[in-house]
Amino acid sequence: MKDYLAGLNEPQREAVTHIDGPLMIIAGAGSGKTRVLTYRIAYLIEKGVDPFNILALTFTNKAAEEMRHRIEKVIGPEAKNLWMGTFHSVFSKILRFDGHKLGYTSNFTIYDTDDSKSLLRSIIKEMGLDDKAYKPNYVLNRISAAKNNLISWQMYNENPSFAAEDIAAQMPELGRIYKTYALRCFSANAMDFDDLLFNTNVLFRDHLDVLNKYQHKFRHVMVDEFQDTNISQYLITRKLAAVSQNICVVGDDAQSIYAFRGANIQNILNFKKDYPDLKVVKLEQNYRSTKNIVNAANSVIAKNKAQLEKNIFSDNEEGEKIEVIRAMSDNEEGRLIAHEIFEGRLRGLKNSDFAILYRTNAQSRAFEEALRKIDIPYRIIGGLSFYQRKEIKDILAYLRFTVNQQDEEAFKRIINTPKRGIGDTSVAKIIVLASEHQTSIWNIVSNIQFYMEGRTANAVAGFADLIKSYTVMMEEGKDAHTLAMHVAKTSGLLHELYMDKTVEGVARHENVQELLNSIRSFVDNDENEDKSLSSFLQTVSLLTTADEDDDGDAEKVTLMTIHGAKGLEFKHVFVVGLEENLFPSQMMLKSRDDLEEERRLFYVAITRAEKQLTLSYAQQRYTWGKLTYCEPSRFLEEIDSRYLRFGDKGIPQTFEPSFAPKKQATRPVVIGEPVKRASANALKPVQPPVQAHVPSADFEPSDTSKLKVGDKVEHQKFGFGEVKKLEAFSGSTKAHILFEREGEKTLLLSFAKLRIL
DNA sequence: CACGTGTCCATTTTT
DNA sequence: TGGACACGTG
């Protein structure tokens, strides 16, 4: 027996050594799942399976990379030949090879959520529909749900029950929108995230030769985080494994937290029906957490009805009880927790031993401020990702358009960025021309002299020449980095950022440099066999925030959403914002009415902790600029109180359910506040007319990044004033300035026409 | 056409 | 709170 098998417990070993036929591993939290998966692959290879014939689907690219490295340690460099990655990345590669059978070129663009929404917004506008009734977000979710259930736009429009639902939801045109959206994506040679899976299904359904090829290539299929797969993904794996029957799925129904994205817990509950001779292995021993934490988690999840029977236990020490903290406000919650981390470090813990987990990204602010104030380094995972920043998207849009001139969304982004005098009217005209002449936008743009003349036409022609020069370079076979570098310089984007000396301008310039660096390392990385721009772009659009080069080794406290924490563990975990309507989220309860999923989310959060767990909530919190009273989350009461201890921090604890004024959760009455808006306007005292300020003759705005509190300034329009306060927000700076005539104004520095006197 | 200003509105999680 | 959009002015 191999030595690595020696360290495994009985069920773990069973899972590792089961090679032929379907296998389902129910892996409880902290039960050594990754270890089992890694060893199983190593074992397969040692038993003579070629790594080329193994497909392992993971939830994030990072998880795949990590597993590949671990396997490499056991079996050596052969591990490189494994097919590993997320569903989206693996199947985008397959579509790159074989997508031409569906009418896509290998250079197809992958639309991210922003692209999809923007396209939907245009479609809704073009159809003359009210964009208040048809919210792009909702429409996209609906289309996405359809695709994830393999309902094409044709099927959607043929099925009267969908039409009935849409009419009931006051959106009778959804079917038409779906159709237009699908056709527009197709003619843009673009796929959205759901298309990658949907089209793979279509490819395997309609092109049996292709299916056959991959069925024989992937003799062994493994799926990690199986509880989070949707129907579309499940069908792909089932088809791939139909011949060999060698399918191994690993998951935990108690940790299914992506139902909102179409994940179907039935996949795991019904798996046995699809594979009658399925072997099921349960990994029930938790090696991660203390008894206390495991028991508390069990007491919570026991409230859920839909689940597979299992008994998660721990042989670790009893451990400390779970601390509950009540704070006055969100800011105090931040302070208390920052303080506790500080104390924890005095007891010998490192920054990286701590994680603060919250339900929504917006909650991070209070913790960031508190940690910064006492100089505790932290890193935030998630939130606005690097690749969603404007300056990055701009460069990427140029690259996308170079690779694929049908990419409508990229076109809209760059045609007038940086400003080259082609305004909205001209762009609209071009789009109209394209549809009048039944041709592509690029066709019009690249032959603009036949359609328009004058200043704008020249500008458009200049743009077309620019893109053509890029295309030529690409066809010469220049690698992604050379090309991107050239594009950044000659498009004017880099120059524009370089000229911008404001704080945020400098930061943006650095971001672009960082993007260029990352393209270079993509090109230099020998593991990427395809170094083309097109290949880089497809890789990049499937990166998640969890994949971004984290300073994993950095000595920092981790802040992230619970969703982002899946698969991770920390010595001391803080689960914060445990307030009714926030966690469980009222959004979730309203739209899907799925308390059980929220509870599983809570379960996931709890089970990230190894030694210590702290739960906290605030009595008051600012939401959307308004102060709201909060009640403690029902989840706090669902934990068996034997495992709890009320913190000595914050306000002394009791659980009287409500300390807030009765039934006015959202809006305390303010005495004297006018009731209606109209009367508010009527009551407004008449302002004495303010004389317009005539700027000094030589008005020349100064470098506002040097602005300090107390500076006397002149504004082009508001006149003279004094800086009262400077405030940082989302990467830039705001100034509160008291103007002599106008009173106090808040200005965004980058836009201020200011002169420092 | 570019820019500044005012108004409205939405706020969950992510491949 | 702040981002997206509509409108008016230069």
TrEMBL record:
Which GO terms fall under molecular function for this chain's record?
Answer: 3'-5' DNA helicase activity; ATP binding; ATP hydrolysis activity; DNA binding
Looking at the record, the residues that make up the UvrD-like helicase ATP-binding domain are 6-290
Keyword check for Signal, yes or no: no
* InterPro entries documented for this protein: DExx_box_DNA_helicase_dom_sf (IPR013986), DNA_helicase_UvrD-like_C (IPR014017), DNA_helicase_UvrD/REP (IPR000212), P-loop_NTPase (IPR027417), UvrD-like_ATP-bd (IPR014016)
Residues reported to bind ATP = A27, G28, A29, G30, S31, G32, K33, T34
| Annotated ranges, domain UvrD-like helicase C-terminal | 291-567
Entries under PROSITE patterns matching the protein: UVRD_HELICASE_ATP_BIND (PS51198), UVRD_HELICASE_CTER (PS51217)
Look up the domain of life of the source.
Bacteria
Q: Which GO terms describe its cellular component?
A: cytosol; DNA helicase complex
Q: Which SUPFAM superfamilies match?
A: P-loop containing nucleoside triphosphate hydrolases (SSF52540)
**UniProt KW Chaperone keyword:** no
- Keyword terms, alphabetized: ATP-binding, DNA-binding, Helicase, Hydrolase, Isomerase, Nucleotide-binding
**Its Gene Ontology biological processes?**
recombinational repair
Q: Which reaction does it catalyse?
A: ATP + H2O = ADP + phosphate + H(+); Couples ATP hydrolysis with the unwinding of duplex DNA by translocating in the 3'-5' direction
EC numbers on record = 5.6.2.4
Q: Which Pfam families match?
A: PcrA_UvrD_tudor, UvrD-helicase, UvrD_C
Similarity section: Belongs to the helicase family. UvrD subfamily.
| Record's protein name | DNA 3'-5' helicase
Q: Which organism is it from?
A: Leadbetterella byssophila (strain DSM 17132 / JCM 16389 / KACC 11308 / NBRC 106382 / 4M15)
